[in-house]
Structures are given as structure tokens and as C-alpha cells.
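Appendix B, example 12.
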Amino acid sequence: YNTNIKKINYIGINILKKEYHQIDKWKKNIDFNFYAFHNKIEDLDKADWQKIYKSINGNLLTTAFFSLHHIHDVNNQHSEILSHMRKLGSGYFFIAEPDSNHITENLTERFTHSLLHFKTIFHLITEIKGISLSERIALQWLFQKEIMDIIGNTHTISERHEPVHNWLQKLRGAGFTPCYCFTEIDNNRPHLVDLKYQRSRGYINIMYNNISILSIMSLV
């Protein structure tokens, strides 16, 4: 592929061994340094963070896709981890998170929000063309565990989603600034399913049946 990038320092957190083959492919095309941390981000200690800080050299791009909500927000862990990430330096930070409110302690509200979110997801899966019945069933089983975690004990779950505005508030508190990194998206373009996009400062909401199911955030 064509690129002006000459060197990449890749820092991977909670890396699985099965992901190494993809890393090896990248190494063939570019000067590539790989720093792997096998622990979860909430289990990194001070020495680990110091290693991460020292490995950064040049332009910084940070991503967290469908991962932040897995962190148990006990004793303000979200704020602590986001503050560590802010200290990495200047650069773009892209985040993707489901857009739903499952953090309320009110079981009825949590169930209602969960029902709306996953009912919309299941309708979307049904509409996707080109996947088999067994693949659709597998996707639905994947979300079954999430639903059980969301409705279950508040001290053991790790699948509760938050509205995009909650995440933006936490990110601002850590020192990040939402920015317009996304160009306008044509809602009339053909897609595999009938998705719509709603663009605001710092994020894009992906909509299905006029319900926001996913937010992609951009910050500096």
C-alpha cells in the first residue's frame, strides 16, 4: 500500500497471542515497533504506564473501540484511566461505544433501555443481507451474555453501556476536547442496511429506525 508513514510504534493493551500474526504482517511493510501489554488496562501499574509514556515518539493516535465500557467504574476508574491516556500527549483519540443507558440502578429503567437497544440491534441483524441463518443466530447469542450482564448484579457486570454524553463528560474531565474530525456523511448513500448518521461536535451517532445504537467519538 502507499503511505508516507515511515515508522510506527504500536502499543497494544490486553493483547491476545492470536493477534500476533496480524502484527507480523504489518512488520513486513514498515519500520514497526510493537509494545505488548497483556493485562487489562485497569490492571496496569505505575511501571507499565511509565513504559508506555517512554515508548511514544512522534504523532500520537489512540483508539478504544467497544472497550471502555468493559472497565468496572469502581473508585472512579474511568477517570483515572482516561487521565493516564491524556498524559500520553497530544494527538487524536477515537472511541466507539454503544449509545444506550444501562448504568442506572433502577432495574425497570435498565431493562427498558436494554430492551430498546438490543431489539433494535436484532432487527438490524435480521436486515443484513449476505449472512447465513447460522451467522445471524451466532450474533444473537453473542449479545445474550451482554443482556444477562446488564440486567444482573451491579458488582459483577462489565457490559453496561452509557450514553455518548456521559462519555464526553468524563473525557472533558480528563482534559480531552471534542473536535470535528469527521466529514459530512451522505445519508442517501446505499448501505447493507438502512443506517442514518447524525453528526455533532466530537461524535457521530449511527442510527437505525431513528434510534441511536452506536457513537463514534473524536477528541484531541
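The chain is about 35% helix and 20% strand. The mean pLDDT is 86.
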